[in-house]
Every structure is written in C-alpha cells, then in structure tokens.
Design goal:
The complex is a heterodimer of chains A (94) and B (326). Helices cover 18% and strands 22% of the residues of chain A. Chain A is an alpha+beta fold. The N and C termini of chain A lie far apart (63 Å). The model of chain A has no long low-confidence stretch (mean pLDDT 93). Chain B contains 14 helices and two strands; from the N terminus they run αααααααααααββααα. Chain B has a two-stranded antiparallel ribbon. Chain B starts with a helix and ends with a helix. The chains are: A alpha+beta (94), B mainly alpha (326). At the A-B interface, strand 2 and helix 1 of A face helix 5, helix 8 and helix 14 of B.
Chain lengths: 94, 326
C-alpha cells in the first residue's frame, strides 16, 4: 500500500501536422517509465508518432461548477463573429 | 435556481441537481469526471467499470496458459498480441474507473479480497489448444455484443475507453474463429477437439451475457443511465442468432438439442440454461476460481519489491537532479 506509483496523463500526436491529444492515463514510477508504458498501452497499432506524459497532479483543471462565470460571458458577444456585421450584396467575399 | 431552492439548500438542492443530471443524460449529454453526479451513479459505475477491468486482467490467465504451447509461430504471435491487448484493455478501464475517485490500489484490493467480481467465464479451464479458438470466437464474440453499445454510454471516460477496446476486439474474435475453422477442417482428431471445445464453452458463453431479464437486479437503472442499451436476454438472442450460422459454416454442432430456427419470430429458439451452474461459479465454486484469484494475488505480492525498487530509483534520480541544480 505504500510507494504507490503516481498517475500520469498521456498525450499522443497521431501524425505530424496534428496536435497532441489526450489519450488516457497510467501509473508509472518515473517519467521514463511513463513514456515506455504509454507506448505499450496506447500505441500498439501505430496510433502515434510522438508522446507527451505529465504527472496528473501538475494539471490544474477548471471546475464545472464555475462553468457559468467562466464560459457564459462569451455567449452574448455576438459581435465577435463575422456574421454580426452587414455587408452590401456587391461584396461577395470578405 | 428558484427562491424556494435558495431558502432550502441541502435536500432540495440535491433533488434539483439530480433532476438536472437525469435530464442531461436523457438529452444524450456525456457526464465527465468533475461534473456533479448522484452517489448511486458513481458507485454503480465503479462497480461495473472495475468488474470489466478485472475481467480483462483475469481473462489473460486462461489464454496465457497456451502461449508457450501454441502450435506455430503465427498462432503464437497472435495469441501473445491478444493477451497483451487484454492487459491494455484492463489498464484503459482501470484509469477510467479511477476518474470516479477510487484509487488503483483500492481496486486491486477489492479484486484480491473477492469483494469485486470478474466475468465468471474465466473460471473455466483451458484444457486443449482448441479452447483458444473457442474463447476467441465465443467469449470475445459475446464480449463484443456486450461492449459495442457501451461505446455510447453516458460516462465519458468509460465510453472513450470502450471505443478503443471495441476497435481492438474484432481481431480477437477473428483469430479465434480461424483457429476453430482450421481444426474443424483438419484430421478427425482435430475436428473432435474443436467440437469438444465448442461443447464446453457454448453454455458458459450464453451465461456470460448475464442472468435473465427477470432475474437481473441492475437492468432497469442501468438502462436509464445508458450503462446498458439492450437487456441481457436481447443480447443473448443476438449472440445465438449470429453464432449458429458460423458453426454451421465450419461443420460444428451447437450442443443444444432444442436449438431450432423459428420462422415466426425470426430468431433461434434455444434450450434451458443451467442457471444453478452459473450462480455456483459466480459464488466462487467454479472449476478454477481459486486458481485464478491466487494467481492474481501472487503476482501482486511477488511484484511488490519491484514496485518499491522502481520508486526508490525514481526518487534517487530526482534527488540527483536537485543536487545538480544546486
């Protein structure tokens, strides 16, 4: 029960040109082992060309309870979208 | 929030939270780890996801038994890859389960003390090579039928894990069917071996899809939470309808004298399942329950010094880095 291996989050770039995406998590003693385990657990079928691992405790996540104050203010800001602005018909593309 | 709810926090508040929650699920919204959820939802999910993870891990044992004795290199690499996938599936599922606030050690503890269950099918022995065929074809076949609907279950981490699992699972069933096909088309002894494996694995595979709807205590709630999309009996019928023609194709006989196509229902009618046997195995009296559990407990205990050594090494490296920085 002592000496539990810490939890790591795994991010994989599936091919060059794409961003790393969260794939899941795993336990490992250190960062080298976390990389090796991530390779075995998450990329057995060519799912990736690059792996990031980070200890889960280093991720600060927003709390869904605060979603209102965090994300709702963006909802009424229609002027941030191009469709808010009128253009004469003669202007075909802008 | 209404005025009444503001004045009466506590029960009123949690009732309304629960209503909002149920509405979200009804709208097919996903629930993510940090979202509010009823305690019962959390507990039910821990039970089901961990049971699923344990099944993947214990499920490596019956097949691991034949890796060194696989009849060719082709069969050996395939079986090895399949067993490795099962380890992977167990790990995806354990991680998904941990997002519900239970630690990996607690999960192992529940398995090792017998508090948590795993699929009872893995308590049957694998006595011949044909069992590798029967397990892939029937057990993985039944598992796929169970798992595909879970890809759209309401709990996000579970649904995402299931998408990965299902993608990898179809190779498992094909490799099993190929083994059976080859044996069924082989020498009379080989065909007999395949038939014998089918005879032994058929009924446990049907039981694997769970007790009948009338006996299943969790079905109603699980359907509501989309933890289940079809009832056990529906899944079992689907499995039988899909498997019988496959057996016919390779010239093997399903060991059920009552099995008959029913033109009216468009399904196969089938014989009585021995539910006493099922409950006996669930309760721990199957042929290999003790062996399976002690294999897991021993692996965990005997690996303790390795886990400790790895942590000690990690700490040493970390200290070295610190010293250099100073």
């Amino acid at each position: 029960m002592k000496n539990n291996w810490p939890l790591w989050e795994v991010f994989v770039r599936s091919k060059n040109g794409l961003e790393h995406r969260h794939f899941g998590s795993l336990h490992a003693a250190d960062e080298e082992m976390a990389l090796e385990n991530a390779r075995d657990v998450y990329t057995r079928r060519n799912e990736g060309v690059s792996i990031w691992v980070v200890q889960s405790k280093h991720i600060k996540a927003s709390n869904p309870e605060n979603n209102g104050e965090l994300f709702e203010p963006a909802q009424d800001k229609v002027y941030r979208h191009p469709t808010f602005y009128t253009l004469p018909d003669e202007v075909k593309h802008m | 929030m209404s005025e009444k709810e503001i004045k009466n926090p506590g029960t009123e508040r949690s009732r309304s939270l629960e209503e909002i929650f149920e509405q979200r699920i009804a709208r097919d919204e996903k629930i993510e780890p940090k979202d509010w959820m009823p305690e019962k939802y959390r507990k039910t999910h821990i039970r089901q996801i961990s049971q699923h993870a344990h099944s993947e891990i214990v499920g490596m044992l019956p097949e691991g038994n034949w890796i060194t004795r696989a009849p060719s290199l082709r069969r050996k690499v395939a079986l090895l890859a399949k067993v490795q996938d099962e380890a992977g599936h167990g790990l995806y599922l354990y991680s998904a389960c941990e997002t519900l606030g239970i630690s990996r050690d607690e999960l192992y503890e529940q398995l090792h003390t017998g508090k948590a269950k795993y699929s009872s099918i893995f308590n049957y022995p694998t006595v011949t090579w044909a069992d590798m065929g029967a397990i892939g074809w029937l057990v993985d076949g039944a598992a796929i039928i169970n798992q595909v609907p879970l890809c759209s279950t309401s709990y996000g981490p579970y649904a995402r894990a299931m998408v990965r699992v299902c993608k990898e699972e179809s190779f498992h069933q094909r490799q099993g069917f190929e083994i059976m096909m080859k044996l069924a088309n082989g020498s009379p002894e080989q065909k007999e071996m395949a038939q014998d494996a089918l005879n032994r694995w058929w009924w446990p595979s049907l039981m694997m899809l769970g007790p009948t709807d009338a006996e299943s205590v969790h079905t109603e709630q699980s359907m509501k939470w989309k933890l289940k999309r079809k009832t056990n009996d529906e899944l079992r019928q689907q499995f039988i309808d899909q498997t019988v023609p496959q057996a016919d194709l390779i010239g093997l006989t399903i060991p059920d004298p009552d099995l008959k196509w029913n033109d009216e229902t468009g399904h196969y009618d089938f014989g009585e399942i021995d539910w006493d046997e099922f409950w006996q195995v669930v309760k721990g009296h199957g042929p290999c329950n003790k062996e399976r559990l002690s294999a897991r407990v021993n692996a965990w205990k005997n690996g303790e010094w390795v886990r400790d050594a790895a942590m000690a090494y990690a700490k040493k490296q970390e200290d070295k880095k610190l010293k250099k920085a100073i």
